[in-house]
Structures are given as structure tokens and as C-alpha cells.
Predict the structure.
Amino acid sequence: MTYNFLSFTEHPHIRYNPLRDDWVLVSPHRSKRPWQGQVEKAEEAVIPRHDPKNPLCPGATRPNGKVNPNYEGTYVFTNDFQAILEETPKPEPSDDPLFQTAQAQGTCKVMCFHPWSDITLPLMELKDIRKVVDTWAEINADLGKTYTWVQIFENRGSAMGCSNPHPHCQVWSSSFLPNELAAKERTQRVYKEKHGKPLLVDYLDKELKKQERLVLETAHWVWLVPYWAVWPYETMLLPRRHVLRIEDLTDEERNDLALMLKKLLTKYDNLFETSCPYSMGWHGAPTGEWLKKDCSHWQLHALYYPPLLRSATVKKFMVGYEMLAQPQRDLTAEQAADKLKKLPDQHYKEKKG
């Protein structure tokens, strides 16, 4: 059969990601195929509010023998099993272009959101979510005085490798700019030099006009599915104002961010009526020596990567073609945005209660 025009909902096509300078294959016709693969168990286990054996709980003893204080809000401590260390020696220089090594210094922190283990961000009160936002800002500013990059990220759910149900995130800071951010530094700088406007500021302006992939809007924030999204329900959270780093947010923007986080995570949980697993993180202008450089091409944003595809028991696997060639998705970004947008605003657990 011959088609005279491309249909985004029927025909395979590739979409460009200007942040990574790469492409994603979109195959919407494949969403009709039956599934006979692996089934993931829905995460609805009963979690105790406080477990003295849980190393993240107030008053609990961690593997290194240290005892957590009886904290009542957020709590930050140095990871007992750090991936990066503050003191590491410089490697000897190599003349061989195929065997290059560089020094890696840094520190890793764990940040607990709340003293209760049986609660997640969308079910927390706004004042408690605001404390999370403030702590993110404080730790980014503090570690950013020393390190080039501070990566705030949360892995939620065992499907994303999180073995502890207590609400928390991690913060890894490093003396180097990681791969993803090195790419974003280059692409955003080149875009602003060519077009005279920060890439993501320009992108948001155009998405607001198109109204095709927006999911939620508040006074200061916009939640959308990126045109180039890879994961089925991948999303991006952007401030309406040009902001370089999370610590630059105003009091009003922080309050509004707390509200947006509660709203967007409620929709994620309502998608398949389960505590939606995901990896999320904040990307803003680099820190350390970059604090003295012009970083006006950067725009603060958060990214959410949930793996679920068709239900609470079926997730997307990045294997085969995705590992060896390029990313691929079935559901289009527009279809994903439309589904998320239509979900209820009230959390399914509160509704059942």
C-alpha cells in the first residue's frame, strides 16, 4: 500500500533529540502486537511505618554502625557504600590514545524525604514536599561549591533497582562532567550561539503554542512528554522562567514545584494504579569551576523515566536493537501525553480510602 503522507500514529519514523544530538525510532504500529513476555509483580506490599532494621529509618543503625537521629523532616547523610570518593590519586599519564584514565573524585549522599517508610512523595503533605525541594536546593548549592557536577536522582521501586522502600533519593557529586551532561553542555551552548535563545526555553515556548504534548501546567511549571521521548511515559518538568540551577528558584516557584510534584506523581501512580516505578533526576547548569563561567545556555529541568509500558505488570526493555543500534519506542509522545493528561487528579489510594 502506498501512502501520500506520514501518519505519526501509524507509520515508523525517527525523531531528533537536540539535547543528546541523536535520534529515536518511533514504531507506533507495534503497539498493537500481543504480549507474551515477562510479567512484573505489582508493588503493593504492606510496608511498616517504622522498621528498626531498615537503615533509613529514624533511630536505626546503619551497616557502618552509625545510628540515624530521630529526624522528623528530611535527613541527609554520606552513603555508606559510595561510588566516588573524596580522596583518590591521579593516574599516571598515558601516551596511548586507546588506554586513557582520568582522576575521579567526589562524594555520594543519601537524602531521606520523610521519617515514615510507608509513604511516597505524592501522598506526602505539601509542606513536607516543600522541605524536599528546599533540601535539594541546599545540597546542590553546598556540594556545588566544590564539585563540577551534583546529580540529584531518585530510583523508585524494585523494578528500578531500589531495594529499600523508604522514601529517599541519592546525590552523587563529581569532579568531572558526566557523559550525559557533557553532551547537554555542548548542544545547549551551540544552540544558543546559533539561535540566540536557550534551547529548552525556546522548546517550552513552542510546546506551549503547539499544545500537543503538555500534561500539566501550574503558575510556574510545565510538565510534558518530550517530542523525542524514549521511554513509554518519559516526561520532562520545566520552569516557565529561565532558571540555571535548582537553588535559584524563588519562594513562589518552590511552593509551586511542591504542588506540581504532588500532581504529576499522582498521575503516574494512577496510570496503572500502582506505586509507579521510575528513575528521575535534576539537570541544571554545572557547578564548581562553572559557577564563574557563562552558563546562560542552560535551563533547569527534571526528567522522569518510568519503565512501565502496557500495565503494572508489563515494562519496556532496552535490549537488542536499543542496545546495539539506537533507542526505539512504540507509543508516540503525543499518545503518552494524552493518556497521562486524562488520568484523575486524585490518587487512587485516597480514592479507595
In short: The radius of gyration is 21 Å.
